[in-house]
């Protein structure tokens, strides 16, 4: 019997492995369990978002999406009360997640549109967008979004795609045997917390906990700002190539806006600075094509309102939220955009 050439052996094995991986990507899944993949992680609030969208009958009229500055900077319950005082009885949620990457905001917003009819989406932006997608995207995104690279220069594409077969096998097993790996198919209303309360203690990126009520010391702020600014890279490519260099930001902002327009949802942008940072937003001309840009740059010098170099204290979130309320109320009073 003829022996296979070693290279041919390798190619056969690789071919079989690829076939199995592709087949795994088509295994059935439960979308609620998919969002539970982040349970117990730094991004665990995504589970609550899914439950608020699909299992809570209350409407969602105003939704915030964006990075951690938006997550920590906007108090949705306070904004809801402020808007009621301005004659706008609406429901507000903050669906921002820690860390940068616009692709996951698109996933969250499009999931929202499947079950709710918001009036306004406010997209949190920073002085310069990330060049990379969000680390939670490969867990939350539908398989079709993971499989499609979206834009030229998607630096996260391969690592997200490689994870997909494993994710689908895990979800398939959990669908067959609910409860495996802590993934359930049943919503538990008894443990669901319907309202968002600004946390008094927050977890930071290294897993440690710190107070969200106390301002950081001057030394902590200076150290954080130095680390942020020393790691920030200005645009490398000419402005005409921004769709490539900042593909994640531009491609998914366009998707979010397109989805909003299909549903008649108004779009606005909210800029929250870091301590002592610039009040200029690099991509502001791009954003203004789609809606107003509300700049809270006036907060940048207020050391007393920052719990760390980039995030507001609970009091700082109150200041920002109260300032934001009249602008949200005004936009809610404007005519709906054409579909």
SS element count, helices: 14
Structure class: alpha/beta
Strand content: 5-15%
Per the principal axes of the C-alpha atoms, what is the gross shape?
globular
Uncertain runs: none
DSSP helix fraction: 40-55%
Strand order of the largest sheet: 2-1-3-6-7
Terminal CA distance reads 68 Å
Give the radius of gyration.
Answer: 22 Å
State mean pLDDT (0 to 100 scale): 91
Order of helices and strands: HHHEHHEHEHHHEEHHHEHEH
Question: How many individual β-strands?
Answer: 7
Strand count, sense and barrel status of the largest sheet are: 5 strands, parallel
Keywords:
5-stranded parallel beta sheet; 339 residues; two-stranded antiparallel sheet; 8% strand
What does this structure look like?
- By secondary structure, the chain is an alpha/beta fold.
- The chain is 44% helix and 8% strand.
- It contains 14 helices and 7 strands.
- It has helices spanning 6-24, 31-35, 45-54, 68-73, 76-85, 103-115, 137-140, 143-147, 157-176, 218-230, 242-245, 247-262, 284-287, 314-333, and strands spanning 62-65, 92-94, 120-125, 201-203, 209-211, 266-271, 293-295.
- Strands 2-1-3-6-7 form a 5-stranded parallel sheet, sandwiched between helices. It has a two-stranded antiparallel ribbon with strand order 4-5.
- Helix 13 (284-287) links the parallel strand 6 and strand 7 (293-295).
- The protein is globular and about 65 Å long.
